């Protein structure tokens, strides 16, 4: 009997209490405490004391919290009885889910018998799924909890409501069912539950959901910072900024998070001045400003054209020197890079970028975008190559940057590199690449990208659809563009404008204005771009009266004040129609001084109709405004040459030389067998050039028999007629057409593109070519499209 005294003593309550107290003190000790925990556990084992459930549960809980899950699991699995202990199981479930091991957590959950489960146990599993944003799984556990008749408390509903908010799209009926469960449980008075209910309704797209959220809010007897924040953010998410402000103005207390939410809401709604005013009030009231405040207000300055205000905010940040660690400061520094680069201060942006201690991909993308928008392509390429990590946005920005800087071919090459590196392009990246195909006239490449879009499921994307529509139109296939438009599931104003522009550029003026009218009937209000496209369509088709009516309706019916670009379209419309006096009257009536686009339209009209006096005056204005623009000199030379004033042509040519102005060389290109072939005037470099010239000689004989006579007035040199004909015969568009006729399959349309406006003789020649070879020939020049077929052009010789 005496031999068992020590072992009996170890089973006494004081020993158990001693170890329980030690473990309790350890639980309140700041982490890490794993070494001390193992020492205590070793002492328990060495002493011979056999801990009971509450000690073992505490050990399992502490091992779980310290991250030593294997030790916790070994203790849990040590006895079969332990596997039925919901307290220990709860600790393990929480630890496994915190480490991202949801499957292991669920395994523990499933092995606990129903009789051992309690509210806390279910709450742990629901919370685990909620933290992992697995709404359906959390709701399923909640339903099991109801079926098992386990009582629900406030923690239950906070977890399941938060998880359900992640289920998208969220149906109003689902929200109402959960709301009813809350009311039945009697937990609706809990602030955390009410907050979760408001958040749930705020995520629901149904309009009535906002009413239910407001009702929950109004019934709350106690509100905290999260309550006000959730209500404000909910209204902001719906775009109802006035209701968000109403709730904000009712707020009790000065919660800086709610102020930040309100400023962010104003920024997202484009109300940048209001965001700045709220920032000013926040500062005056002494409400703490943090990185979220600064990020939002600097975004307002960057997006709202408020650069000077942005610099003032930057100066304020430097002056008060907030105690930001590198990670906290990063969003502010990133938006500062965007601010300065967006307004042309790319060198300042680069200095800020260089000073960022912990750059992320957002930092690099911001700097990359700044260089591309500033036209500093090489600097952008250097940044791109230096990036150790690139995301989809990086590639998209670089591809679009190449395109917008006139380097469409480089954009296509980069897209191909992206695919080779295994990066999956998003729909916006495809949109930029398809746009590059449109600029190059690479129709077959564009079709291949269209097929890829369908395979990837991007065909419903508006950005990709609009890019496809424009690409087909720019490649001369207006029928494919129209079919794309008709098949788009959700057309927006960009889609309508693109289709109207396509019809106008291809000479379908009546169809363009019919589509414009249909857009309005379908409830889409025209914007300033819509009017630019319809005015251009009227100009290309000679629909003067219709164009006037649309111009006058802008301000009268839609409150859109015409800009210089709209006036330029109107004057171009009048000039092409020979109504030069009316164009002059419009210029005199404008509320601003005419700029280059106005005088270019006047000069173009004077060239067409031979108005020497006004043409010279328009050219003189342009020489003052844009002296390096070669188009002015060329158009004026045409006016002089048309009346045989060769001495004046020579003077213009000398003026160009003296000013260092070089004429952009005309070039044409055509896609054959997925390869783009480029031709210059009098080309001798293309490998098939001799075959092309021989073919043109043979074709020229047929054309002359049909009545073709070279129009030598388009040669700006005072030389013999035979020489002029020789010069005309080597124009780049004729060479490209001949190459297409030689290399493309019989009967296939010939599509060529030219960087400049097609000359009158080439226009006439291609009309006769279309008859001589019985083929459709499509030419995209610098202004519009010409579809030549059966001796006719879609422009009706009105160009």
From TrEMBL:
Keyword tags = Repeat
- Report the residue ranges that make up the DYW domain in this protein: 707-799
According to the record, where are the PPR repeats?
A: 118-152, 224-254, 255-289, 360-390, 391-425, 492-526, 527-557
The processes (GO biological process) annotated in the record are: RNA modification
Enumerate the PROSITE patterns for this protein: PPR
Q: What domain of life does the native source organism fall in?
A: Eukaryota
**InterPro entries named among the record's database cross-references:** DYW_dom, E_motif, PPR_At4g14850-like_plant, PPR_rpt, TPR-like_helical_dom_sf
Extract the Gene3D superfamilies matched here. Answer: Tetratricopeptide repeat domain (1.25.40.10)
Mention one GO molecular function: zinc ion binding
Protein name per the record: DYW domain-containing protein
* UniProt organism field: Ensete ventricosum
């Amino acid at each position: 009997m005496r031999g068992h005294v020590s072992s009996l003593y170890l089973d006494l309550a004081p020993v158990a209490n001693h170890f329980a107290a030690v473990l309790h003190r350890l639980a309140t000790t700041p982490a890490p405490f794993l070494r001390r925990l193992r020492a205590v556990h070793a002492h328990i084992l060495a002493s011979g004391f056999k801990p009971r459930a509450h000690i073992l549960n505490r050990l399992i809980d502490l091992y779980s919290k310290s991250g030593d899950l294997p030790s916790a699991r070994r203790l849990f699995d040590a006895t079969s009885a332990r596997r039925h202990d919901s307290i220990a199981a709860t600790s393990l479930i929480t630890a496994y889910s915190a480490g991202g091991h949801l499957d292991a957590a669920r395994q523990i959950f499933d092995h606990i018998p129903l009789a051992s489960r309690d509210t806390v146990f279910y709450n742990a599993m629901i919370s685990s799924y909620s933290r992992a944003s697995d709404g359906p799984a959390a709701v399923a556990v909640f339903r099991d909890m109801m079926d098992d008749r386990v009582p629900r408390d406030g923690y239950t509903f906070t977890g399941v409501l938060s998880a359900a908010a992640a289920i998208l799209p969220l149906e109003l009926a689902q929200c109402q069912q959960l709301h009813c469960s809350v009311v039945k449980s009697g937990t609706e008075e809990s602030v955390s539950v009410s907050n979760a209910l408001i958040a749930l309704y705020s995520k629901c797209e149904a309009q009535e959901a906002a009413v239910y959220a407001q009702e929950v809010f109004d019934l709350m007897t106690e509100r905290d910072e999260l309550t006000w924040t959730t209500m404000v953010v909910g209204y902001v998410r719906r775009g109802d900024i006035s209701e968000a402000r109403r709730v904000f103005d009712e707020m009790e207390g000065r919660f800086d998070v709610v102020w930040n939410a309100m400023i962010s809401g104003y920024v997202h709604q484009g109300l940048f001045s209001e965001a700045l005013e709220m920032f000013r009030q926040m500062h005056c009231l002494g409400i703490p400003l943090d990185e979220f405040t600064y990020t939002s207000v600097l975004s307002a300055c960057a997006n709202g054209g408020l650069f000077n205000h942005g610099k003032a905010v930057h100066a304020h940040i430097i002056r008060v020197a907030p105690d930001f660690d590198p990670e906290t400061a990063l969003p502010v520094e990133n938006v500062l890079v965007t601010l300065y680069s967006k307004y042309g201060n790319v060198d300042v942006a680069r200095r800020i970028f260089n000073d960022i201690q912990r750059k992320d991909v957002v930092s690099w993308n911001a700097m990359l975008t700044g260089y591309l928008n500033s036209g500093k392509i090489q600097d952008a390429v250097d940044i791109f190559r230096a990036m150790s990590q690139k995301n989809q946005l990086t590639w998209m920005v670089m591809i679009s940057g190449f395109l917008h800087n006139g380097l469409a071919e480089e954009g296509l090459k980069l897209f191909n590199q992206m695919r080779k590196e295994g990066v999956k392009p998003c729909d916006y990246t495809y949109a930029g690449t398809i746009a590059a195909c449109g600029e190059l006239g690479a129709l077959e490449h564009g079709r291949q990208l269209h097929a890829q879009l369908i395979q990837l499921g991007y065909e419903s994307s508006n950005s990709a659809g609009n890019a496809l529509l424009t690409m087909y139109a720019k490649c001369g296939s207006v029928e494919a563009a129209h079919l794309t438009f008709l098949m788009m599931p959700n057309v927006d104003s960009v889609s309508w404008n693109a289709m109207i522009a396509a019809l106008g550029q291809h000479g379908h003026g009546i169809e363009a204005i019919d589509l414009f009218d249909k857009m309005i009937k379908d409830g889409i209000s025209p914007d300033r771009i819509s009017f630019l496209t319809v005015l251009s369509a009227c100009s290309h088709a000679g629909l003067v009266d219709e164009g006037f009516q649309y111009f006058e309706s802008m301000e009268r019916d839609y409150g859109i004040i015409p800009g210089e670009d709209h006036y330029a379209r109107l004057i171009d419309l009048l000039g092409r129609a020979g109504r030069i006096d009316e164009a002059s009257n419009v210029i005199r009536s404008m509320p601003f001084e005419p700029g280059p686009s106005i005088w270019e339209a006047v000069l173009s009209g004077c060239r067409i109709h031979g108005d020497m006096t006004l043409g010279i005056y328009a050219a003189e204005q342009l020489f003052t405004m844009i002296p390096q623009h070669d188009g002015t000199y060329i158009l004026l030379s045409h006016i002089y040459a048309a009346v045989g004033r060769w001495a004046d042509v020579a003077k213009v040519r000398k003026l160009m030389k003296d000013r260092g102005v070089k004429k952009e060389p005309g070039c044409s290109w055509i896609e054959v067998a997925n390869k783009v072939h480029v031709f210059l005037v009098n080309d001798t470099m293309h490998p098939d050039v001799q075959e092309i010239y021989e073919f043109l000689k043979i074709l020229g004989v047929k054309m002359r028999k049909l009545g073709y006579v070279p129009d030598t007035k388009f040669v700006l040199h005072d030389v013999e007629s035979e020489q002029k004909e020789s010069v005309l015969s080597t124009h780049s568009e004729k060479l490209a057409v001949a190459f297409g006729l030689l290399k493309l399959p019989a009967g296939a349309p010939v599509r060529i593109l030219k960087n400049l406006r097609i000359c009158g003789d080439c226009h006439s020649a291609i009309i006769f070519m279309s008859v001589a070879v019985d083929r459709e020939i499509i030419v995209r020049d610098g202004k519009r499209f010409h579809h030549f077929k059966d001796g006719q052009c879609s422009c009706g010789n009105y160009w």
